[in-house]
Structure formats: C-alpha cells, structure tokens
Amino acid sequence: MSIRPLDGITVVSLEHAIAAPFCTRQLADLGARVIKVERPGSGDFARAYDKQVKGLSSHFVWVNRSKESLTLDLKQPAALEALKTLLKTADVLVQNLAPGAAARMGLTAELLQPENPGLILCDISGYGNDGPYRDKKAYDLLIQSEAGFLSVTGTKETPSKAGNSIADIAAGMYAYTNILAALLQRGKTGKGSVIDVSMLESLSEWMSFPMYYAYDGAEPPPRNGASHATIYPYGPFKAGDGGTVMLGLQNECEWVQFCDVVLENTTLSQDERFDKNFKRNENRTELLAIIDQCFKTLTIDQLIARLENAQIANARLNDMKGLWEHAQLKARKRWIQVDTPAGSVPALLPPGQNDSFDYRMDAIPAVGQHTEAILRELGISPEQIAQMRADSTI
Q1: Domain assignment present for 359
Q2: Do 173 and 37 fall into the same domain?
Q3: What pTM does this model have?
Q4: What does residue 225 show for φ and ψ, rounded to 5 degrees?
C-alpha cells in the first residue's frame, strides 16, 4: 500500500452534525487516524437525522467513514481524564461543541499544549471565539441568512436556502485546509497552533462576489432563480420533451453562434434589441419567447447536440437519480463500496486524483465500536473499563 500524506497523524474530534465531521473525514481520507468522541448510547445526534441509507442517516453516512468511535460521557471525571490522556499524544483536536463548552472542560491550548507542545487545536463555531455574536446559537440556515446568502438566492418573490448545508460545508473546508497548513507549519517550527474557524466568516468569503457587486452602496445582484442575475441567456430552458437544459453565453461571439447554429436564425444576432448582453438582459421576455419557440420543437438530446455543435456551455438539469447514474462519474470510476453497520454502500472517492497514493475509504463506525480498544491503548485495565461501562461513563 502506498504511503498517504497523513499516515501517522492522530486526530481527536469532539464533533457533531456536519462542519467538524466533514473536516475530519477529509483528514481521514488522507490517512489520518480520526477518533470520534460520541455520547454513550445515542452518539452524534446526526445519526438520527433520518433513516435513508439502509436505516442509517444520510448526513452521517456522508461524513463519518474511516473513523473510530469512542464513547465518553465527558461530564464524568473518568471519561474526561481518559480524553486528556489521549490528547497527550494526539496531533490534532477538533471540536464544534457549544460555545465555551471545551474551555469549561479544560480543553484549551493553555492547559493541553504544555504537555503536548505540538498539539493543534481547531475550534469550529458559528461566529468565532470572540465578538458580540460569540455565544449566539448557529445552525446552517441561520448562517446562510446572516451571511446574506438568502438575499441573493431564490426568486424575486422568495428568498431560498441552498439545498445542502453550504455554511457547514464552507466551515468544514476551511477547518480542513487550516489544519493541513498548521501541520506544515508545525513541521517548520515544531509547535502546534490554535485555529478559530467560524461558519459566518467561511460563508462570507464565498459571498465576496455579490458583496463587491454591491460595493459602496450599489444595488446587489437581483434574485433570479436558476438564471444568471446579469447575463442572458444564462440559465434553465425547457426542451420540447419536458427536459430542462442549463446553458450559458459568456460573450458576443457565442451569441452569434447560438443564433446561427442553435436557433438556426442567422439574422437574430444583428437584432438591435439583443446585440449586446446588457440589451439581452433588459429584453429577456422578448428573447425568451424566441428561444422557447425554437426549443419546443426539440428533444433535450437534440437541443444538447446543437449546443455542443455550437460550442455553447450546457448541462442537463439532473435530479438525484441522474447524479447517481452520471456517465462521467462511472467512466472515471469515482464510486467505491464502503462498509457500514447496516452493510456496504456506495461512496464517491474524494475529489482530486493523486497518482502517489490511494484515499482511505474505510468503514463507518457504530456508536462506541472502538471504545474498549482505544481505552486499552491508554493503559486502562479491563476491570476499569468494565466499571466505566457499569457507570455509563462509556
């Protein structure tokens, strides 16, 4: 087996929901040993979000493969002591507990790094570790709202959230990349560091285009459904057989090609109502009627063939069935089976093919599956472990 980039790195994570688990799963993909600390009995509450995957939660299956599950009731001294023993030799501690919870348990750099100077601590929160919003509760939809995402997403009449947990994903990605940077930094200095990642700041970074568009009090881009706010035609269009194609024009050369090859209307590109993008944008209703008149005579396959022939960017408006069956994902062998407590399920390989190593794609753990093995590693005797189980400490 090839050596993975994070082989030999141990990550301990006090995690739930999406942001921290998505971060640590990606560390596990690169070879890190990820020990997921869960509540005895129920575990991460995301395990109970739904039962869509052979009785398991779709969210949980997505972000928790290749991990070990350690159950600890951290309100009990024996459990907290076991965790602190584990952290003496760990490389990374990730947590997205409620604001202040980790500090109240003594899980801070000031208390942990004297015994483990190389330890990297990564806190993921809604708003960051200081400031007036520090203690405010934060869920994905609430951060989408605070970051202005809803104000530019949806239709003119209805602001809309993203169809997945985009604020959690953004925070998880920045936590992941910050931890990788901290590991590189530690390689140069020998010292660990503290990382403070907020969901608000992560999603705000992704909102920079609409922010700059509205610079210095200018009007923000309007909500325009799946169509582009300022470029036209750019968005979804119906074919005659009911299928929907997404297409986008970026320049005037493409506009001429669109008229000549796709619409088969060689005079339209010279029409003064539409000969510049700003005019097409202003006259969307009239242009849409012309486009629809042509598209209703074509199946989606015929329409895509014309768009490809004209070298106009396009895509099918896929549903989840279409994504599961996507020919490109199959052709590039992006699917692999992973084990779960309910049997094997398909999973996508992580984005980015690397010819020097294979991603780790191990099982999704049952609650507490690895508890006894990990505690034995820490030198805790079988008798002590049995007592901890009897006391519901684990």
Answers
A1: yes
A2: yes
A3: 0.92
A4: 60, -135
Handedness of CA 293, 294, 299, 300 (dihedral sign): negative
Phi-psi domain of 349 (left: phi exceeds 0; alpha: psi -120 through 50; beta: other): beta
Whether residue 256 is found in the same domain as residue 340: no
Question: Which one of the listed residues 16, 228, 326, 370 is annotated catalytic?
Answer: 228
- Do 58 and 150 lie in one domain? The reply is yes
Q: Is the pLDDT of residue 1 over 80?
A: no
Give yes or no: residues 15 and 73 share one domain: yes
The per-residue pLDDT for 228 is 85
Within-domain flag for 223: no
Tens digits of residue pLDDT in 154-170: 998 999 999 999 999 99
Examine residue 215 and state whether it is found in any structural domain, yes or no. no
Distance, CA of 275 to CA of 284 (rounded, Å): 13
Within 10 angstroms of residue 301's Cβ, the number of other Cβ atoms is 12
Is the same domain home to 33 and 142? yes
Task: Tell me, yes or no, if 228 is annotated catalytic.
Answer: yes
More confident residue, 351 or 223: 351
Cα separation values, 277 from 238, 286, 387, Å: 21, 14, 73
What average pLDDT does range 210-222 have in this prediction?
91
Q: Are 375 and 356 in contact (CB under 8 A)?
A: no
E strand segments, the chain: 10-14, 33-38, 67-71, 92-95, 120-125, 194-198, 234-238, 244-248, 313-316, 335-338, 345-348
Average pLDDT over residues 371-389: 96
